[in-house]
Each structure stands twice: as C-alpha cells, then as structure tokens.
Design goal:
Layout: H1 5-17, E1 23-27, H2 34-47, E2 52-56, H3 59-68, E3 76-79, E4 93-97, H4 98-103, E5 115-119, H5 128-136, E6 141-146, E7 162-164, H6 169-174, E8 180-185, E9 197-198, E10 201-202, H7 204-211, H8 214-228, E11 233-236, H9 240-252, E12 258-260, H10 266-277, E13 283-286, E14 301-304, H11 311-318, E15 330-335, H12 339-343, E16 362-366, E17 373-375, H13 388-393, E18 400-401, H14 402-414
Helix pairs in contact: 8-9
Amino acid sequence: MLLRPYQQKDLDRIINTFVTKDKILFEACVSYGKTYLACAFIEKCVEWGKNVIFCVNRESLVMQALNDFKSIAPHVSVLKSGYKKLFNVDKQVQLVMLHSFNANKQSLKDFDANVIIIDECHLYHGGSMINGLLKQFPDAKVLGISGTCIDEKGYLLSGYDEYLTTITMKELIANETLAKPIYYASENNYNLDNIKLRGNEFDYDDLSKLVLDVGQVSKIVEEWKKHALNKKTIVFATSIKHANKIQAEYKKQGFNAYLLHSDINDKDRQQLLQDFRVGKKTILINVAMLVEGFSDTEVECVLFACPTRILRKFIQSAGRGLRRSSTKTECIFLDCCGVFALHGLPDDLRYYSAKPVKNNEPLFVICPECGAVNSIDNNACEICGYSLAIVIEHGASKPQPKKALERLVLVKSMQ
C-alpha cells in the first residue's frame, strides 16, 4: 500500500510506540486519510499473524472501510446486522459495527484479538458499549483514532498511554490537500454572555429565545447574500424551529433552502443528501445531522448559526467544508453566531492537555507483591510485573490519594 510521506512516518511511529505502550491515541484532521492509514497498519498486523478488530459506529464507515481494505479483503470479516454472509470468526480482521457487537458479543467469544482500532474514538469514549468491547479483550493493544481527540470540556481523552499528533490542518491547507478557508464574521453576532449552561453546552431554552429573534434570522440570510451568494451551502441551525425560520427567510428573499433534521425520515433524508451532492439543491439547513460523517467535496460555504460551547463539535462541523476537489479550492466559513470569538478559527494550532487531577483522586497504587509505588494508570507493576489491573478491580490494594502517596514516597526514599 502506497502511503504519503507523512502517513508512512506516522505508521512507523505507531508501530514503534506499541513496543513500549499498550494504548495509543492518534489525532489526524479531516482529509488526512485515517482509514487508509489504519488499513496500512492492519496489513502489517496480518503479515505478523496478529488478529485485529476495527471498530466503527456508522454503516457508512463500514462501507468506507470495506472499500479501503481491498488490499486485505481475503482476511476481512464483517460483524454487522444485515451482513451475516460476510462474517467469519476465523478471519484475522474483524470489521465491527459497535452496536452489532453489543448485541452479539458471543459472536467473537472465540476470537483472540491482539489489536483493537477504534475509529472516531471520541464519539463513544467511556461509553458502556466500547468499554464492553475492551473488557472482552483486555490484553489487546488499542489504537484510538480521531480528528478531535478531546472530550466535551476540551481535555484529551483519558485512558491512553500515548498521544500522537501528525501534520496539521494548516499544513494540509498549505500543501493544497484541504481547501483554503475564507473567514467572515457577522458584526451583529449574538451576545452569549448571559446564556445559562446545561452541562457542557448552552441551555437550549435560553439559547432559543436569542436565536429565534426575527431580526437575528434575517441577518443570517443578509450575511450569506453579502459573502456567499449562490454558493453551495451547509447551514448549522440550533433547533428545528430555528431551521424553519431560516428556511422561511431564505424563501422570503427569493432562495430555495431545504431542511435536514431528525423529523425527516431516512428515505427522504438520503434523497435530499443525494440531491445536494449532485447540485440539484444547493442550500441545506441542518440541525445536528451533518456535524460529522458527511462528505461532499463541493461544499463552498459553511454557515454557523448554532452557537456551541463544545470545541470538538465546532471543529467537526467546519470539516464539512474543508475537503478539496479539482473544481473547488476554497471554502467560505461564515460565523453568524459568535463561535469564532468562542473558539478561534477551525485551522488554529491547538495544544490539548489531560484533565487536571483533583487532590482527592487516586494517583498511585501499591503493588501487593513487591511493595513498589506505581501510577494508577499502570497495568502492571514496573518492578515485578504483577497485574495491577486485577489488584485495583478487586480492591486488593486500595488506590492512594495524592497526599497519602506523598508521605509513602517520602518514607520509602528514607529507607
């Protein structure tokens, strides 16, 4: 398999890192070729006689993976409802739809997984289904892949031993892999200072009062006419009611816009997306439907009308317009809700950190075999190799808070 130079470099880094680490978090932005890289890594695993699970969460990704995995097709089995004929537990590579595994865990009871690759790992990080998969194969190496390796608060996803990054969005724009972004922000953006929060996001009811204002809705279409007139456009709206109002304003000003939200049935949704792809419909107003998983290289404008506090949601949404084609080299990003002020620009360089540890959270565990002090993240004692995962799970050695371990380390250093 022929890789780009930076992909080959990343493949080598992943392989070398797995020599000393068990769980790797790998971040690469839109159009990097994450599935292609995964396939190259799986090829190596097949050569080495290793068994691999490649886990996805959407049917479209199953199709994409099957297409990208042509070079290893004879070794690939599919675990997904409706694909029974493609399932064979004796094959080295199991392409697994997470929901299907959750409903059919016994299907892989005789499969000895050496490596688990989790595509778009941020989507179900920490959830019961992915935890169930990892628990069934506790000795497998884990590679989590995502374009946004952060949680809803902006911290790195936990549970990994190593975080690897690669070529940046800015670099892919510079080498013309991605479309050149052109940014505009409305001068009349929302004032979000007084909007309440619910969890990590803006309170829906509070936000609705602001975005549904007739004056604000009309400004959205005016800004679009000013900067992106007749451009193929995806609009991100806050709610169905908000989307309806934006559609009505487009119609009032002489433009046909179409709605995509949870009340649209699957058949009509697929037809609408197909019409949008081929250019029969050019303005698509969506409500949380196209944040990720949708690819159309001809999108010329992404219009943000839905304020969000969640950085990864903003970056993923912007990705809908960054893909480049032979006929599209630029994309307009139009901020009509203040997200640029909240998060910066999609291609800004960002450095993520792990979630800060609270003083009362356990940091270390004492090995009951040799008494060595180990980090709570260690699977095995660094001194004698005793399994600390078993120790912690069964409470044989209680994880120690920071202050208690500081005293213990001091005592051991004086011995």
